[in-house]
Amino acid sequence: GWIGAPLEPVGNPLLAGVGPGAYAPRADVPDMTYEGGLRIVPLRDAPEFSVAHQDPDPRGMDVLGADDKVGGTVVDLWVDKSEAIFRYIEIEVDAAAGKRRVLLPMNLARVSRRHVKARSILGAHFADVPGLRQPDRITRLEEEKIFGYYGAGTLYATPGRLEPLL
Length: 166
Description:
By secondary structure, the protein is mainly beta. Helices cover 10% and strands 26% of the residues.
């Protein structure tokens, strides 16, 4: 290595927290609304919100990675109650320890009429997305780690992404 040499993470590069996967150590508390309630919640806990009738409802759809392999199934959407927009797609994945639920940031997903696709990671990578301590709330730190994981995938998901484009 030398000054300015590229970083090569040790272990799982998507969890290393370096390069495009770096994140800020934000407070490990949920974001709150002006009224004092949780700002980002699953749709199952926010009956006043729903998917617009003209849009596809992704619940029940497969989630594909950049390799077009199924990484999991959509089980719910998470809504930002302050801004009335969907922030996350909740996915059930098969992990080594059994089934678990992880989040996919909505702005990194493409929802079609048949499936949801995330181009930053591969299908097998969904099993290792950082999880939540509680199933119905997300903290600011957890948000940072989740975005960092998908961000790291833009560079480290495949060996070809590490190479120069020219």
